Every structure is written in C-alpha cells, then in structure tokens.
Amino acid sequence: MATTVTTPAAEQAASRRTEKVGLVVSTKMDKTIVVEIEMRKAHPKYKRVLKSNKKFYAHDEQNSARLGDMVRIRETRPLSKLKRWNLEEIIRRSSLSALAEEKPVAAK
After folding, report:
1. How does pLDDT run across 8-27, given as a tens digit for each residue?
2. CATH tag, 17-102
3. Domain boundaries, the chain
4. Cβ–Cβ under 8 Å, residues 68 and 96
C-alpha cells in the first residue's frame, strides 16, 4: 500500500479558489468585513493604466480584522446574499488601530 502525503504546494495547486489582497474599509457588521480591492489594468488601445475599485464582503469569524488592515480573502461558498469570501489572514495591521489600543481612557 502506498500512502499519499499532501504538501502545502500540492494542496495550493489543487485548490482553485481565488485569493485577493485588499484593504478593510468597514467592520461595522458582526462577523463581516468589507474589503476594497484596487485593480490596475492597461487600456486596450491607449495603454494607460486605469485604476478601479471593487468591494467584497468577507466572513470574519473572530471579528479580528480592523479598519485599515491589509488582508487576504479567499473565495468560498455563498454564506449570505452578498458574502462569498472568507478572511484567510491579516497581512498587515493598520497603524490607526495600534494607536487606538495604546491610548488609555482618561479618568478624572
């Protein structure tokens, strides 16, 4: 009997789920974040690079992502009317959220 061992590289090659990297623009919903992705594409005729933004709703089970964080989201089955993405990892924390944590509440 031959045992099959799956390596992370082979696992990623088998996975056909799209991954995107973007900025968290809203965390006001429970277990949901809104991620804005900036896409750059050259114009077919004029070759000028055009920017366009698109927002994606992603599931965040632990409510760990904060406003301004750079995150990676992965495509998943439909979770609600708008949610088709899942939070994979937080790539970079926002400096704004770090300032909010450090600032103690002033007591009189």
Report:
1. 666 656 678 999 999 999 99
2. 2.40.50.140
3. 17-102
4. yes
Structure tokens at 64: 């760990």
- Please check whether residue 55 is in contact with residue 71, taking contact to mean a CB–CB distance below 8 angstroms: no
Q: Collect all residues with Cβ–Cβ distance below 8 Å to 92 and sequence separation of at least 6.
A: 69, 70
* Structure confidence by residue, pLDDT tens digits, 68-107: 999 999 999 999 999 999 999 999 998 876 666 666 666 6
Considering only CA atoms, which of 102, 19, 96, 37 is closest in space to residue 65? 96
Taking the whole predicted model, whether its pTM rises above 0.90 is answered as: no
| 3-state class (DSSP) for residue 107 | coil
Q: What angle do CA 28, 30, 31 make, to 5 degrees?
A: 115
